[in-house]
Amino acid sequence: MANLRAGLIGLGSMGRHHARNLRAISGVDLVAVADPAGDAFGVAGGLEVLPSVEALIEQGLDYVVVATPTKFHEPIGTALAQAGVHALVEKPLAVDTAAARRLAEAFSSRGLVGATGHIERYNPALQELRRRLADGQLGDLYQVVTRRQGPFPARIADVGVVKDLASHDIDLTAWVTQRDYELVAARTVSKAGREYEDMVAATCQLTGGVMTSHLVNWLTPTKERLTIVTGEKGMFIADTLTADLTFYANGQVHESWDDIAQFGGVTEGDVTRFAIPKPEPLRTEHENFRDAVLGKEGADIVTMEQGARVVEVCEAMIESAATGRFVALQS
């Protein structure tokens, strides 16, 4: 069977990593690249840098990875769908919910594979966390807390911290818990003099009454990437910077003093850091998208419908911050 013919549009700081992985995975040949701004990172190698998505389509591709600024996602994705080309589009899927839904419909209505590049789903710590939660190892879920903080990345120009960073936490939280967002409340600030917000603190509710808290900013001098899930049997902490997963079990303490024994709290029990394989998340994302294009069972992609839902929750956070109210979402 011939290798899939892949293309890449957008040769910036994220595009160069996509190019590296497209060249590394089996069963795929990177045969065409495009960016009207040129090739600042030398991604193309021996390939001609094409000027547009139309020129890319003319190369006869099976699929394309879209790593352009967000405002171009819908027109580029629509052109690919109309040409019958599968696509992996970087997150956020589109500039707003309506555009994201149109893009998802453009691919699904034509029977094409459309995916959103929420890379954090493929972090080994979160993959293992989801498996253990699905296995019931935490029992009833109570709360999810995420902290995603660090310096401002110069690569971001057209969205704020909610759509660029909090979108990761929205997607991974819904995915690891297998629940949907129902209520959203948030506060944002802009301290760096940009048009968009650079800090958000959000409190949300998932289906089944699970609480979530998300603290995200571009104003912290050191990076922090934590997902903390608390339930009836203890707490998991996933550090996606190191891809480590640690479990803190609830301890069993028997009190002889009756008044204290009546208090139904918890104590610290055993602590376990799991030894897990740590493949590169972007490599895993590319392998799963390749398998989805090939129609293989078990290919785990972030669908465009899921990507659109993430954009909807992001916009609910922004709306809540502007209005000072909880925003309810439809299931």
Automatic annotation (TrEMBL):
Source organism superkingdom: Bacteria
Which InterPro entries does the UniProt entry name for this protein? Gfo/Idh/MocA-like_OxRdtase_C, Gfo/Idh/MocA-like_OxRdtase_N, Gfo/Idh/MocA_Oxidoreductases, NAD(P)-bd_dom_sf
UniProt xrefs under Pfam families: GFO_IDH_MocA, GFO_IDH_MocA_C
Family the entry assigns = Belongs to the Gfo/Idh/MocA family.
Kindly list the residue ranges recorded as spanning the membrane.
none
SUPFAM superfamilies assigned to the protein according to its UniProt record, in alphabetical order:
Glyceraldehyde-3-phosphate dehydrogenase-like, C-terminal domain (SSF55347), NAD(P)-binding Rossmann-fold domains (SSF51735)
GO MF, one annotated term: nucleotide binding
Which Gene3D superfamilies does UniProt cross-reference here? Dihydrodipicolinate Reductase, domain 2, NAD(P)-binding Rossmann-like Domain
Gfo/Idh/MocA-like oxidoreductase N-terminal domain ranges (all copies):
5-114
Domain (Gfo/Idh/MocA-like oxidoreductase C-terminal): residue spans on this chain: 131-329
Q: Which organism was this protein described from?
A: Tessaracoccus bendigoensis DSM 12906
Question: What's the protein here called?
Answer: Predicted dehydrogenase
Q: What is the lineage of its organism?
A: Bacteria, Bacillati, Actinomycetota, Actinomycetes, Propionibacteriales
